[in-house]
């Protein structure tokens, strides 16, 4: 039997055993799960939803930066670069900055922004941790838009 490989797209609750973008050999397949050797050296069953079939390059967040001054605006643009060279952007804010925005009488009563990430603080380490967690769980692409630099 030929070896069967899968590539991890999200780690979920398996941070001890999976790395997003890593390729794993499948030892056994059942209905909805694969038996693989995790990063911790033990074999375990993991739902197929954490993987894509085959050896696939998964774009991983490499770097990010604030594009605005965080003290000047309520919603701050950030830009990100991924391992495949793609660039994306998102908006970040905090609950406090959102309250400040809505306390302005000149704004609408509500809005929807797909690429808005709300976090506790805009401290660089907190933003880094939030972006890495979203990336590990394949949510960062959904929470961002392609950066068109034209």
Q: Mean of residue pLDDT?
A: 94
What does the radius of gyration come to? 19 Å
Lateral arrangement of strands in the main beta sheet: 4-3-2-1-5
Beta-strand percentage? 25-35%
Biggest pleated sheet: 5 strands, antiparallel
β-strand number: 10
Q: Helicity, in percent?
A: 10-25%
**Any idea how many domains?**
2
Number of helices: 2
Structural class: alpha+beta
| First-to-last CA distance | 49 Å
**Spans of at least 5 consecutive residues with low confidence:** none
What is the approximate shape?
elongated
SSE string, helices as H and strands as E: EEEEEEEEHEHE
What can you see in these coordinates?
The structure is a single chain. This protein has 150 residues and is of the alpha+beta class. The chain has two domains: 4-53, SH3 type barrels, CATH 2.30.30; 61-146, no CATH class. It is built from two helices and ten strands. It has helices at 95-103, 124-136, and strands at 4-8, 23-30, 33-37, 43-47, 51-53, 61-66, 76-82, 87-93, 116-118, 145-146. Strands 4-3-2-1-5 form a five-stranded antiparallel beta sheet, with no helix packed on it. Strands 6, 7, 8, 9 and 10 form a five-stranded mixed beta sheet that branches. Strand 3 and strand 4 (43-47) form a beta hairpin. The longest helix is centred in the last third of the chain and has 13 residues, at 124-136. The radius of gyration is 19 Å and the shape is elongated. The mean pLDDT is 94.
């Amino acid at each position: 039997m030929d070896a069967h490989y899968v590539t991890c797209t999200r780690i979920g609750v398996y941070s001890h055993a999976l790395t997003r973008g890593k390729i794993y050999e499948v030892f056994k397949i059942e209905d909805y799960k694969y038996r693989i050797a995790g990063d911790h050296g033990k074999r375990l069953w993991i739902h197929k939803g954490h993987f894509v079939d085959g050896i696939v390059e998964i774009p991983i967040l490499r770097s990010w930066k604030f594009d605005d001054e965080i003290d000047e605006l309520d919603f701050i643009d950030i830009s990100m670069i991924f391992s495949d060279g793609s660039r994306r952007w998102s908006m970040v804010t905090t609950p406090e900055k959102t309250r400040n925005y809505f306390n302005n009488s000149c704004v609408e009563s509500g809005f929807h922004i797909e690429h808005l990430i709300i976090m506790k603080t805009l401290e660089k380490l907190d933003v880094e941790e939030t972006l890495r967690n979203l990336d590990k769980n394949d949510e960062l692409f959904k929470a961002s838009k392609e950066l068109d630099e034209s």
